[in-house]
Amino acid sequence: MTRKMADRLAEATPPGIARKIGGLSDRSLAWLFIAPTIFLLLAINIFPLIWTIRLSFTNYRVNRVNADVKWVGLRNYERILTDPDIWQTMQVTAHFLFWTLFFQVLLGFALAWLINRKFRGNDLWTTLIVLPMMLSPAVVGNFWKFLYQPQIGLFNYMVSFVSGVDPASFSMIGSIDLAPWAIVIVDTWMWTPFVMLICLAGLRSIPDYIYEAAEIDRASKWRQFWTITVPMVLPFLMLAVLFRGIENFKMFDLVVQLTGGGPGSATEVTSINLKREAFEKWRTGYASAYAVILFVTIFGLASIYVKALNRVKER
To answer: What angle, rounded to 10 degrees, do the helices at 284-314 and 270-279 form?
Structure first.
C-alpha cells in the first residue's frame, strides 16, 4: 500500500521538481537546447549590425582592400543628413509609404467586411483574392512591367478605352509623374490581401452577442459599425499598418523590377539609393552610416507606433 502511494505521489509531482537527467536540471537542459539558437541569431543579426556601425565611422571602401582605413568620426552622418539628394529619396519613400498604406488599409478592410458576410462562393473568392500575395515580388514586378508596356501592355489599352487617349502616347513606368503611382498600384494589388486577412481575423473575433445587444437597444447598422466594428477591429488594422509600413519602408525588389529607380530619380526610394552607394559607388563606410540612419528611423518610428498600439488595445 505504501509503495502504491509513493508511485502515485511521484506521478503527481510537477516535472520541474526533483527531476534530474544526466545530472542536469530542467533549467540547464532548457538552456542547453536554446543556446545554439541564441548563438546563431547573435551571429546572423547582432554581429553584422555591430560591424556596420563600426564601418560607419570610417572611410572604408570594399573595392580598395589594401587602402588605409581612416577613422572619420561623424563625418559620414553629417554628409548624409545635409545631402539634398538623400532627402529627396526620403520624400519619394514617404510618398510611396503613405499612399500604399492608405489604399491597402481602405481596400483591405472593405474586402474583409464583404468576405465576412456569408454568401455563396465565399471560400472561392477568398482564395482568389489572396493569390497575389503568394507570388514572388520579382515575378509580380516582371508581370506588371509587361502590363505597363506602351505598345502591347493591357493596362495602357484599358486606360485608353476609358479616357480615349492613344495607349502609345504615354507610359506609366516611363513618366516622371506616373511612375510612382505605377508602383503604388502594383504594391496595393499584391499586399491588400494581407491586410484583408488581418482585418478578417479582427471582424470574426467580435462576439455576436455584442451586435445582438445593440439591436435590442435599436442601434442602427451605421451606429453599430462606428461604435462596435471599427473600435474592435482598430488594433488589427494598426497591426497591419505596422507590418506593411516596415516592409514598404525598405521596399527594394519590386521597384527594381518595375522602374529600377527611374525615370531619373522619380522612384528612387531609400533602399535603391543605399544599394547604389554601397555597390555602385563602393562607398562602404558612407553606405554603412546610411544603413544605420535608416535602421534607427524604422526602429524609432516602430517603437512609438507600438506604444500607441498598446494604448489602443488597453481601452
So the answer is: 150
